[in-house]
Specification:
The protein contains seven helices and no strands. It is mainly alpha-helical.
Length: 161
């Protein structure tokens, strides 16, 4: 029954969701740490310097610039928001790993809800990362919608014509 309940594509989606949850927890912890301890900022800057592969890493510099402009309240709100999103992605990922049908519906709904925001962000400024994120989420959505439609078509009563 493995092929009927998901197989490798569903597991890949689950791992992707769990990775997103892990990254968001890290961002949340960093945001809360920055809000509570000024020494964390120095540590974050040192880590960012070590991550730079060239003399100028615009992505890291832009992220640090944005974060440095946030006050403690905004940092705490950022941390809370990322924890909420991490909880949603964690729920999706664990549900998909356990091959729960409700997780497929939840993942479909959540993924579909993010696509308009990703398109909007892409129109505000093109980035290969934004485009790749949108493409991955569209592929996930299409896969899940097709899976769910196939499952529903198997359970619908056949009508005589």
């Amino acid at each position: 029954m493995q092929s009927e309940r998901g197989g490798k594509p569903l597991l890949a989606i689950a791992v992707f969701k769990l990775l997103k949850a892990t990254v968001l927890v890290g961002i949340g912890v960093a945001a809360w740490s920055l809000a509570r301890d000024s020494g964390t900022w120095v540590t974050l800057q040192r880590v960012a310097e070590h991550l730079k592969l060239g003399p100028d890493n615009r992505l890291v510099d832009r992220a640090l610039g944005t974060i440095s402009g946030l006050d403690d309240t905004k940092l705490e709100e950022l941390g809370l928001g990322t924890f909420v999103y991490a909880a949603v992605f964690l729920t999706e990922g664990v549900g998909l790993v356990l091959r729960k049908h409700w997780a497929e519906y939840l993942t479909t709904a959540v993924t579909a809800s993010f696509i308009p925001f990703e398109v909007y962000e892409l129109t505000r400024g093109f980035s290969p990362f934004k485009l790749a994120g949108l493409a991955v989420n569209v592929a996930i959505l299409v896969y899940l919608v097709v899976r769910l439609e196939i499952r529903l078509s198997r359970t619908r009563p056949q009508t005589c014509r």
